[in-house]
Design brief:
This protein is an alpha/beta fold. It is built from eight helices and nine strands. It is globular. The N and C termini lie far apart (about 50 Å).
């Protein structure tokens, strides 16, 4: 009797502490994702009304990198709370048939939108500015694109870089230089 109990205890400890919920579409669901009609112009207006940034998260069923982000990165308190407080997140299914109205007004399926935006990998995250010129698609208007899974520090740095509009500053510090500086600052703080 001891062995089966020990085996059961070992199996339970191997499960992720915060297993991400999976929806009927096979995609991960979080409390900070918005269930919208996927009219991106309306979503942008709503994000602006809440003083948040519109973030389009493109994922697919069975994506091991999406699972890694949802189980290892997004549940971290500093990341989950930063997203919740600063971003209006709309999930797009890379192979989905749900209708999306792009920022340029074109109505197409999720999978057609992902193709139009040139997205090949999941997760991919598009970060939108508050104001989008007439006729621009989400891909054309995006201020940054996260093309795949990043580790926690890189993810938080990118979220911060976008939220603080560092892309619009008149400096030579692009995201890679900003991230390198943040790595040095964290290393310095940990040795003090």
């Amino acid at each position: 009797m001891i062995r089966p109990l020990a085996l059961l205890a070992a199996m339970l400890m191997a499960l992720p502490l915060f297993a991400a919920e999976i929806g009927g579409d096979g995609l991960h669901k979080t409390d900070w994702m918005r269930d919208t009609f996927k009219d991106l112009r309306e979503d942008l207006a709503e994000a602006n009304a809440e003083d948040k940034r519109l973030m389009l998260m493109v994922e697919q069923r069975g994506c091991i990198y999406c699972t890694r982000m949802h189980e290892k990165v997004f549940p971290r308190p500093e990341i989950g709370s930063y997203i919740r407080e600063n971003f209006f997140v709309v999930q797009i299914n890379l192979h989905g048939d749900t209708e999306v109205t792009d920022l340029d007004g074109e109505v197409l399926s999720e999978k057609a939108a992902a193709r139009k935006w040139g997205l090949l990998f999941t997760p991919s995250i598009l970060f939108l500015p508050e104001d989008v010129p007439e006729g621009q698609s989400a891909e054309e208007a995006a201020v940054a694109v996260m093309p795949g899974a990043f580790e926690a520090a890189t993810t938080l740095d990118l979220l911060t870089w976008v939220n603080e509009k560092r892309y619009a500053l008149d400096t030579d510090e692009d995201f890679q230089r900003y991230h390198a500086r943040r790595i040095r600052e964290r290393a310095s703080e940990s040795t003090e």
